[in-house]
Amino acid sequence: AQSVTQPDIHITVSEGASLELRCNYSYGATPYLFWYVQSPGQGLQLLLKYFSGDTLVQGIKGFEAEFKRSQSSFNLRKPSVHWSDAAEYFCAVGPNYGQNFVFGPGTRLSVLP
Amino acid sequence: ETGVTQSPTHLIKTRGQQVTLRCSSQSGHNTVSWYQQALGQGPQFIFQYYREEENGRGNFPPRFSGLQFPNYSSELNVNALELDDSALYLCASSRTGGGNTIYFGEGSWLTVV
Known about the structure:
The complex is a heterodimer of chains A (about 110) and B (about 110). Chain A has about 110 residues and is mostly beta strands. Helix content of chain A is about 0%, strand content about 50%. Chain A has no helices and twelve strands. Chain A has strands at about 5, 10-15, 20, 25, 30-40, 45-50, 55-60, 65-70, 75-80, 85-95, 100-105, 105-110. In chain A, the strands form three sheets. In chain A, strands 2, 5, 6, 10, 11 and 12 form a six-stranded mixed β-sheet that branches. Chain A is globular, with a radius of gyration of 13 Å. With about 110 residues, chain B is mainly beta. Chain B has strands at about 5, 10-15, 20-25, 30-35, 45-50, 55, 65-70, 75-80, 85-95, 105, 110. The radius of gyration of chain B is 13 Å and the shape is globular. The model of chain B has no long low-confidence stretch (mean pLDDT about 90).
């Protein structure tokens, strides 16, 4: 069965601190992996994606993620968090064709001043 | 700006009624999908349309139906509304050869009372 787990429901960090959001997936084929961010009352914005190649991918807003096949993980990182990063973050896995993505339950990020 | 627009942004319906949600994607995006996001959860795949035909469906009953039009717009119809249908409904689109990256609209908030 295809699934995505995000073990942390809510994370609080101080502004300027580093951040790592965890994502683990279960997928029967080669996974296409994504991280999306959702601000309150908004749609989903794509942060970054991994299809193949270099396992460390760079995204927008200073985010990066590392694909580790042996651990079935795709963790999101940022070296220095800004107050504007407070939002809900979703990890997703999808096929190489089609839009039937499976999303994780999300991790809510709060940023302390 | 993803080029995907949805309407209406908010609406309230009574249990048992029917609702139609609309989505307009950008030119060249010939694949559209709809997701349901209940409060506090990740989005769940409802179905996908390609060239005006449904070609993928998630675990949703037949009272969830859709249409895709030649002008890249689409509709989600839900009949016999139930209280549990209250959610944010997200439209997503992608273009062929786009590396299977999907772009989301801002969503339509549906409240069933």
